[in-house]
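Objective 1.3, modelling of assemblies. Example input:
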Amino acid sequence: MAITPLKNDRFLRALRREPVDHTPVWLMRQAGRYLPEYRETRKRAGSFLAMAKNPEIACEVTLQPLARFPLDAAILFSDILTIPDAMGLELYFVEGEGPKFRHPVRDAAAIAKLAVPDMETELRYVMDAVRVIRRELDGKVPLIGFSGSPWTLACYMVEGGGSKDYARIKAMAHNDPKALHALLSVNTDAVIAYLSAQRAAGAQALQVFDTWGGVLSPAMYREFSLPYLTRIARELPRGEGSERTPLILFGKGNATHLETLADSGAEGVGVDWLVELGEAARRTGGKVALQGNLDPATLYGSPDAIRTEVRRALDSYRDGNNGSRDGHVFNLGHGMSPDMNPDHVAALVDEVHAYSAR
Amino acid sequence: MAITPLKNDRFLRALRREPVDHTPVWLMRQAGRYLPEYRETRKRAGSFLAMAKNPEIACEVTLQPLARFPLDAAILFSDILTIPDAMGLELYFVEGEGPKFRHPVRDAAAIAKLAVPDMETELRYVMDAVRVIRRELDGKVPLIGFSGSPWTLACYMVEGGGSKDYARIKAMAHNDPKALHALLSVNTDAVIAYLSAQRAAGAQALQVFDTWGGVLSPAMYREFSLPYLTRIARELPRGEGSERTPLILFGKGNATHLETLADSGAEGVGVDWLVELGEAARRTGGKVALQGNLDPATLYGSPDAIRTEVRRALDSYRDGNNGSRDGHVFNLGHGMSPDMNPDHVAALVDEVHAYSAR
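Predicted structure (C-alpha cells):
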C-alpha cells in the first residue's frame, strides 16, 4: 500500500506519551445510530451485519463522524464478535436484544472443535474494510483496529448472547475451569492473529474491548481475563520505537486492576467513568497512556454541562499526572447510544481541544 | 409487644464486632422464587405485590428459608420501592421486566408535590408485616427491616423503571441538579421515617440498599448518593450501646467509597463481589462490620466449588482483619436468582458455619 504521511498524529503521539498541541479525542461507537447519515446508510444496507460485512459501506460509516467533528482517530466499523462468528457460531442480531449466537459452545467437546479462523478468507471482509478505510482516510487521522477480549468473546460464546448474570460461563468457571481455559486460549490465539492481520492491512493502533471483565470478582478476573490480556500485550507483534503500533486495553470496571494492566506491556489502558482519571494516572505512574473516561450519559446534559465535565476530566488527569496533560487520549468511558444529540458531541470535541491546548 | 429474648444473636453481635461462635450468614433475596414453597404461595396470592401487601403472606414467605436452612437472620419480605409507591407513583410489575411506576416524576414541579407518606396509614401493611413476623419468629433470629437508598429510589422514580444507562436521571443531575437534590432530600426524610417506623414495629436491624450508586462516577456519587446515605446514618434514631439497632449500608459497586462509608456512622457496610473482603477490611480498619460478598453466580457452581469459594471469602476477611473473623456477616454480593438450587444454598450456609467455627 502507498504510504500517505499522517496529517494528524496527535493520537499516536499521546499513546507514546509524547508532547502534543492538544489532547486528542475520539469516542467509542462514534460511528453509530445517533447520526442521521448513519441511519440512512443502514436503511440502504438493510442491517448492522450487512454494513459490517461490506467493506465499502463499513468505510462510509467509519468516515461519517470525521466529516462532522474534528476527531483525532477513526475506528474500524465492525463488531467485537466477528471472531466467534468466523469460528462457526453464527452471529445474528435481534432488534432491541443485542448480539446472539446460533451455536453457542457450552462444553469441553464443543470447545475442542474450535479453531483460529483464517484471517484472509473467513475474516477477509474485515481486512478489506481496513484497507479501503486506510485508502479513503488518506492520512487524515490514524485508523484504530479492534477485537473483543478473550474473556468477553467467551461470555457471548457460552451464554449465546448478552446476559444479566453470566450464569452459564460462571458455572463453567467453577465446574470445568479446564474447558474454560481451553476456550480462552483459542480465543487468545485468534485475537492475536486477528489484530496482527488488521495491522498488516493498515490499522495504526489496536484496541481490545474487555467489556465484561468487570463482572468478575478480583480473583476470577486474575484467573480468567487478565492473563489472556497480558498474553496479547506480550505476544502481539507490533514493531518498535516510533513505528510501534500501540495497543490499548479497554475494560469496563477495570479500576481494581490498573496497576497490573499498566505492567501488561500494552501502550494504553482505557478506563470507564467509575474511577477518577487522576487516581488512574497516579496508580499507573506514567507506565502507559490513559484513555477515557467521561460517563457517556454526560452527553444527555446540556452543552454547558458537557463542557464543565470535559474540563473536570482533563484537569483530573493532569493533576494525577504531575501537572502534565501528555499521555491522555480523551474518550468516553463506554460507547455512545442512539438517542444522543450530535450537537452535544460537537461541544464535547470542541471543549477537549480548546481547553487542553498547550 | 411482648419481648421474647433472642435465641440466636450472632448476627447482631457480629454487627457490633463482638466475638461469636461462628460467622453469621443470611442471603439477600433468601425468600424467593428459587424455593418451591415460595412459588406455591405466590401462585395462591396471585402476584409479588399481593404477597408483599398482605402481612400474613409476607410473614409466611419471610419464614420459608429459615425452615430449610440454619440462617442467622430473617429479612422482611417486601420491596425496595414501597416508599415511592406510597407517594403516589403507583408501583407495578411486568413479568420479566422488573418494577415500573405508572407516574414517574421528571421535573421540579412533579418533585415539589412529593411528600413523606404516613407510615401507619399508607405504609401500614409494611409495619403490620414486621409485627406479624416478629411474633411468628418468636426470637429464633433477628428480623432485618430495609429500604431503598434515596438515590436508588430516585433512579426508579425518574426513569419510571429499571434502566440500562440512567439517561433521564443523569440528564437531570446535569441540567437541573437543584430539582434532583430536592427529590433526594424528600426521599431521605421518607427513608428515615420509614426505617424508624420499622424499628418501632419490631425490626432489629436495618439495611439500606443503594443498588444503583455504582452507576455514578466518583464525583457524582459524592454529590448525589453519599451525602444522603450519611444523613440517614447520622439522623436515624436507633438507641445506644448493645440496645442500638444496627444500620447496614449496602451498595453495589461501592468499593471506591469504602473509607467514606466506614466514617458515615453506620454500623455495617455491605459490599458486592468486585472487591476482595480482605481489602475491604483493611480499608475500613475495624470502624464498621462488613457484610458480603460471594458472587451470587457462585451458586451455579457445584456444592464443592461453592464450599471452596466460601472458605476463600471467609479467609480473605480474616486476613484483612488482623487474623480475626469477628465483625463479618456472611452474605452474597447481590440478591439470589429464581433458577438457583436450594441444595446449593444448604451447602453454602453449612460451609460458612462449619469453616468459621471458633
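Strands of chain B lie at 74-75, 91-94, 98-101, 143-148, 205-210, 247-251, 268-271, 289-294, 328-332.
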